[in-house]
Automatic annotation (TrEMBL):
Region (Disordered) location: 1-49
Keyword Zinc-finger attached: yes
GO MF annotations in UniProt: zinc ion binding
Organism: Roridomyces roridus
A Pfam family that the UniProt record links to this protein: zf-RING_UBOX
Start-end of Basic residues biased regions: 35-46
Entries under InterPro entries matching the protein: Znf-RING_euk, Znf_RING, Znf_RING/FYVE/PHD, Znf_RING_CS
Keyword Metal-binding in annotation: yes
Keywords noted in UniProt: Metal-binding, Zinc, Zinc-finger
Domain RING-type: 113-165
The protein's name in its UniProt record: RING-type domain-containing protein
Coiled coil: none
């Protein structure tokens, strides 16, 4: 028994000695076996069973369907967005048109010249305090000079206001005339208002935007699409839309480059010039000068 114990002890000692002597060899052996085990496992996992293959294919198909559904959803969302953008643009331009129209209505209601029925250009009032009526400079000059006696270049009777018949002071034949006999007074408040409102109208551009937007939409959407059907409903225009269209064409005449704006600017310029001439020379103007001015005014 003690013999066996002694024989066992050296063997243990040997193996421990072996381990102590060469630890790297043991580690290397262990690493190799681990690597082998791992390779075997990997090989087993690449082998796919047919049912697994079918399952994966189905999965892929499902994912594809999902992607397509999402892409359709995105398309629809983008279409509805551009539709909403279009509607917003239309509403904005309708608001702008309404605002401009209300400016034009105010202008026509409060600043129409009673002689030419256009928006007053370079407004002047008549001298008598009780009158207070205003007209375009050119209009009131024409009215005044239409009463001038061409043969002698003088006024033989008082000229009256075309509205209230108030009488103006008779223009003295003798020079120098007094300043206070000048028959016209500039209406500066009306002039400033007209100018500001006409400038606002010139800057408004909503209407043209509305028209362009419409044409674009009609061209862009393929016939038969959902949008086209909706558009068809919109094509049957409401009364309000027709009114806006009319307002739009009225406003177009007052925009930059518009016909009425150009005419107004011309009347404004000419009226200012002729009034200026008459005002600066009033005290010294002789009958022939008055006749010349009458001819220039074409009355
Ligand atoms: Zn006028
Ligand atoms: Zn009057
Ligand atoms: Zn005369």
């Amino acid at each position: 028994m003690p013999k066996a114990a002694t024989s066992a002890r050296p063997s243990t000692r040997r193996s421990s000695r072996l381990n102590n002597q060469d630890p790297t060899a043991a580690q290397a052996a262990e690493t190799t076996s681990m690597r082998l085990r791992r390779t075997r496992t990997a090989r087993r996992s690449t082998r796919i069973t047919p049912s697994e293959l079918i399952r994966r294919e189905m999965n892929l198909e499902l994912r594809e369907l999902e992607v397509k559904r999402k892409s359709d959803e995105l398309d629809e969302r983008s279409r509805s967005l551009s539709r909403k953008e279009d509607e917003a643009a239309t509403i904005l331009s309708q608001i702008a048109t309404r605002q401009s129209k209300s400016i034009l209505d105010d202008l026509e209601e409060h600043f129409t010249c009673p002689l030419c029925f256009e928006i007053m250009a370079q407004p002047f009032s008549l001298n008598p305090g009780a009158c207070g009526h205003s007209f375009c400079a050119l209009c009131i000059l024409r009215h005044f000079f239409s009463r001038l006696h061409k043969a002698c270049g003088g006024w033989h009777e008082s000229v009256d206001c075309p509205m209230c018949r108030s009488l103006l002071v008779i223009t003295p034949d003798r020079v120098p005339r007094l300043d206070i006999t000048f028959p016209f007074v500039p209406n500066r408040t009306a002039a400033a208002m007209c100018e500001a409102m006409i400038e606002k109208l010139a800057q408004s551009s909503a209407g043209s935007h509305l028209v362009v937007k419409r044409e674009e939409s009609e061209g862009n959407w393929p016939p038969g699409s959902e949008w086209d059907m909706e558009w068809g409903r919109k094509k049957g225009r409401s009364k309000e839309e027709e009114e806006l269209e009319v307002a739009n064409s009225d406003l177009a005449c007052w925009r930059e480059g518009g016909k009425l704006r150009a005419e107004w600017l011309k009347r404004d310029r000419e009226g200012k010039k002729e009034m200026q001439v008459l005002l600066t020379c009033w005290t010294t103007f002789r009958s022939q000068d008055f006749v010349d001015l009458k001819q220039r005014l074409g009355v």
